[in-house]
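Weekend entry, working from home. Most of the wet-lab plans are on hold until the incubator is repaired, so I used the time to fold the two sequences that have been sitting in the queue since the last round of cloning. Logging both here for the record. First:
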Amino acid sequence: MLEDPSLPFRLGEHRFVPGERRLAGPRGTHRLSPRAAAVLVCLAQRAGDVVSHEELLACVRAARAGEAALRRSVAEIRKALGDPAHRPRYLETLPGRGYRLLAEPVPASEPGPAGTPAAAKPRPWLEALRKGGIAETGLAYLVVGWLVIQIADATFEPLRLPSRLGTWVTVLVIAGFPFALILAGLIDVWRATRTGRPQGRGRRFLDRTAISIAGAVLLAGIGVWVYDRAIGLPGDGEPAAASLARPTPVEPNSIAVLPFLNIDGSPETAVFANGLAEDVMSRLAAVPSLRVAARGDAFSLPANASSEAVRARLRVRYYLEGSVQRSDRLLRVVIHLIDSENGFRVLSRTFSRDRSALFAIQDEITRLTVANLRVVLPPDTQARPGIYGEHPDIDAYVLYRHGMDVLHRPLSAASIEEAVGWFRRSLELDPGFAAAHAGICAAYAQGFRVTAEPEWIERAEHACAAAIDRNPHLDVVHAALGHLYAETGRDGDAEAAFRKALAVNANNVQALGGLADVYYRTQRLDRAEAAYRRAIALQPGNTGTYNALGWFLYQNGRYEEAATEFRKMLSLEPRNPQAYANLGSALVLSGRFAEAEPALLEAIELEPRRDAFSNLGLLYYYLGRMEEAVAAHEKAAALTPHDHLAWANLGDALSFTTRQEEARAAFERARALAERKLRVNPRDAGTLIDLAWIEAMLDRRQEAQEALAKARELTPSDPYVHFVGALVALRGGERRSAMPVSRRRSTWATRRSCSRPSRTSSRCGTTPNSRR
């Protein structure tokens, strides 16, 4: 009970000063009305007792005001205390009787209910933290850190400092921030406890901030150094997305030709610039012992890319960059040969000629480049004269380059027709332009993979014949002819054509890859693998060469080795959808489902493709998620409606659901598409294996066995021909004949693979677009 109601007192967490009518607590400070203040004092004097309405009105000397005024005063007190009427902690209402103060008031000078001195003075260190310089030090550190990062970003690259040094500085600045705040607080606490009063912003600001920042940098530097040695900073390790293998080391006798910069910005100059770069690339590829990066890989970098980016992406020692500018008939070309190791220029030259002199400029650039590389290339290195082919009409050449640019895009029926249109317009100006005829041949041969239209093969044959007739000395002509023969199952002719292309240009990776395919189809497996690996050695930055070797290893049941090659693709192109799709395919058949699913989903996220959806459907089948498997195969069939394998995969998935009629319809369509494809190439072993399974699922056992017999004759060592043979036998009830094969192939998938890796990559169109 209060002895002197005029002195301040406490109610729990609240403190009330009667003279000022001020009630302070966790909810803030409230100034009560005179009547409410008097009611609170009256209740405090009789805490714990019931005080009637009349007694309270007498205390406040407001009898005439009535009970309504009293209720308003009580409500005001409750609001200030944060005390609800239905769950009172301080003030209780007793209907018909009055009010009672539940909390015991304590003089403000005595300890409160929690034992905390009610009027204790703030401790010096708390006051130091509240009024000290932590905020100022934090702001100063952020400003200084931002300036340091900006200076490093602007100066490190021109000074040729290692890129990881910039990463080191950024991590150091970030890691030092909490250290700066902690040190600033500790300095203020130390000063406050030492002097008995907190230090403010005054004259202590500079030394406190300087000490804090310097100490933070020192401590953060030690921590970052320890982390870097133990774990490694970002960018020092291998890409984490797919646990990638270490990239191929830089080849000493290697070069790339970057896309030339289009100075005037016109579309025609862009075609000129790309054509000039690609033709110089072809000329350099004919130089013995000189390894030249593929067009698709070199053109994945922007014009005037940094030497570090070139070295990391293409793994080449040297590279050519330049610019092209056209003005009426005048053509101005500037080139620079640069050492990727240090970024220094080995050669710089400017050409200003009539536009008709383009081919002379190409020859001179090649000669100058080889001459300047002579000190690092083997002594017998020289460009072979007379192998570059033709100097067509310049306008015909520009149209031809338009067609080649279209042909380098992802293949579709529309893009093939567009490319052929450009080639035909080129031939209208120069009917004897053999490269344009070869372009038509290559376009229709590649288009057959997409459309499976037999008449496209006929058109390709006619165009290749015209190209050979015009100029039988071009390597691109023989390479196109070799792929045409390969598409039609004429492996002997294909091998001869690829050998002719390589006789003209031993470094033609397109022809070398085609020859490796022929070796594989004719069961010369050691020679095939050696050719695939030689292609990688020629162009270590070409993702297509790793894709081709990975496909070969996959086909021979070497799934782990195949996955390694697909990871190398990702080390060169971390966002290559084909690499993710093929990696997922290899991981599925390795039984590593947990790793396969994110790889396949990433491939679909980057670019929805048939092979990625097909292999995702296979994965879901293995996991027993049949509805998801059906949905994935439906998407694959929608993307490639002319692909027999997509429909066969869909039929497989549907056959494990209640949708049996839809499954049979899918198999019927798959059979029609497979037979249509075999009419063009009866020796396509992969399609024969697929057809065997399709016939078995349609309960046509005799036809299935005939297809298998033809496939075994063509490719007796292919594991799939034996595996599918076992599955066909099991479906026909011949468990005894199927068991030996099943035992031998126990490391394979438990059922036919829905899809194998695609041979084409987003950067390399030199190999058949087939699951085989």
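Second, folded right after the first finished:
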Amino acid sequence: MHFARPGCWLRSVLLLLALVAVPTSGGQPPGASEDALGEAGPTGVIDEIELRVVRFGPGNEAREGSYVGVLVQLRDNGTLNGRDVLLRINGVDLDGDPIQHGRVVSTQPQGAPGTAWLYLRTPMSSARVSTLRLEAYSVLEDDQSSLGVRPDRLLGSLPVALQPVIVPRTSGMFGVIGPRSMGLAKYSTQYGTEAHSPLGHERIEVSTSLSLANDLPDRWQGLQQLSVLVWGPATDASPGLLSPEQARSVREWVERGGHLVVVLPPVGQDWLSATTNPLAGIMPDWGRVERSEGVDLGRYRPLLTRRVDVPLPSNATVHAFEPPRDANPQHAIPVLAGPDGETIVLRRIVGSGLVTVVGLDLGSATLDRAGLPDPERFWHRILGQRGELRTRDELRNDPQYGRNADGILSGVTQRRPRVFDDEILSLIDQSRSATVGVLLGLVLFILYWLVAGPVGYAILKSKGLEKHAWVAYLATAGVFTAAAWIGAESIRPRTPRAEFVAIVDQVYGQPTQRARVFASVLIPRYGDATIAVGDIEPGQEAAIRTGREGSDLLSPFDPPDDTAGSGGFPDNRTYTLDARAPRAMSVPARQTVKQVAAEWSGEPVLALPAPVQEAGDLEARRISWRVDGDETGRETFRISGQIEHGLPGPLEDATVLIIGPQRDLLGLGASVNLRRTEMFARPNYAITLDDPWGAGVPLDLGALLEAKRQSERNEGEFSAARWVRQLLPRGADRSGFGVAATASGRVDERLIAAGFLSQFEPPPLASNPNARETDVGRRTTLHGLDLGVWFTQPCVIVVGKLRQSSGALPIPMTLDGERFDAGGLTVVRWIYPMSPQPPGFPGGGGVVATEE
């Protein structure tokens, strides 16, 4: 008898592979295809309820991979009295499990139309998932369901195509309330179909003419895709028209990092009233407001335009602010002043965000027809942006470039993309654990094949025992089966664990931190498991999901990869997220990992840097700046104050950015010479510490700056402008041009660089730029975390990395109500606002600034 016939081998191999292929912590098939959308759930009579999508994002624009609010109109034709229905939009996660973003709503009686908001994170790739499905179901009570009901009968269904409304994942987004764009539309300038700003980096999609009724949602995540919301003058845009839910959503969006800019109207000042303005609690402390009518805006020309031939309104209304002397410094920050030194742009810090009030009448029809104010002159200084926003015709008509314009146009539209945040999945991947199981299976298989096959048979033959081949084969199979089971059991994970990447921010003086966290959570069992942001007691999961508690967000992580989502587990199962308050989710558990993304804000968890207290003082010593002059007239920027942190480990690669006041306004005609250095803060410094910064170790900012001055030839060598300039080449090359453009930085360095993309140096206006200068920075998952706005006022920014192999997450997150161990990377970003100083108007004669 032959020891190992082919049929026996096949059965043995299949048995052994089945025994050793026990799932471990790293296997995660990608998400299911678009065809899986909408297949879950019962079917029934269609169109008892008519469905219509009124808005899919503010202005019907939604960015790939961002949260979006969907305003749905529903008309119930199946009953006269109205009823509760389950309204949901279907999606799919990276593992192929269908997701249902749902909420229970009540229809209007007599077939009257009603509206309801749904919220979901849009697919990261509209090429991979191009259509979603909106459904309405009758409901049955179910205490075990996350929404308290389960679907009974399908009453209405509507496909929702993403392509008409989708914005590329590489674009930033602003919103403008009111009929005037106030010059902001130029941020969307394109020369062709390029995905970047031609004379800058990240292209910003500006959603204009937003209305309160249809575009302001009742939950903050409906505004999450916007980094800036400019509220312009309009008769139908009074803050008094906000519902309590809308006002709360705006406040929470600001607290979590949004920038609300209010342009005061010339009349009807509900904004200045504490009783009629539901947003009064986050407005700057403007104290005395002086309203001036009949003002000639020609006096403000250097702030509005570089041109001398553009007519400006001569009968405008201007509001100037005079904050009270005892105002909280963070509640009244002058940003821009008029020619007489009066404050016309005032700011307040709210949590991690800002509220800025503009006193100039920018809603003027005269300004609107001229495309003013010029965003390079005005909005850059408020929003913290950089780069030129000239149209194609403006560039061609500029006599400085003449016949070279077409060559310049070709150079700036065909640029090499450098991406800074599309590798997060590689940082949280737990496939290393799975590798152990795969290697064990491979080793056992090889040994089994040798012992049960040619080696074993050769030994038996050499001893004349071929007749015992079957006995030896069965014994070998038994031994290796036992070894496989023992090995698989020994490496099987038994405790939850997460690998994570977190970006944590705090503005000193504010009571909250905010964080965006991406985590791969190991769930070491089968069945269902509840992952939640915040501490949730076992048995209370359904109560949290009702939306009455908390406004943090938890969602499946969808990486920016067009090839992801092509497969899934054989047992794909549907799970539900509350469409208004997705703070927790019960997900299928398969003794593997689940990738999640979280948006959190709350009381500080990490002891980020803070000013050092002097011995015996009850308060921390403040950080301050001044300018010293000598007998030659030379001025030197000084800073004083010490800081220390209490983080659970040293802060690695820590960089201290010292940002001074804004440069004075440019003279008329000035722009070109400053275009490449127009980082408005002047002076600015970036000092990277040579060694990791340990906890409890004081850092003297004044001594640090002076030591750097002594060691460098000039201050340009350690300016923040130079530091930012060196960030762009660290991006990952996504051009497909070959190996010549590899990134010079690590993945963790790119995550820090992504926060400064708005300050990247624009490309040169040359017909033959070199290769480095044609790079264009992009980001895909870290929108809304840009720190550029802090370059518009004096401050100290500390950035660095905290690594941990074990410990707690930097935000409260639980699995089935229990905290779990985690290891990973935390990017720390801390801001200390210093005393402000608005830029001055140019001296007489229109001084033209030159490149530094």
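Plan for Monday: verify the second prediction. The chain is about 15% helix and 30% strand.
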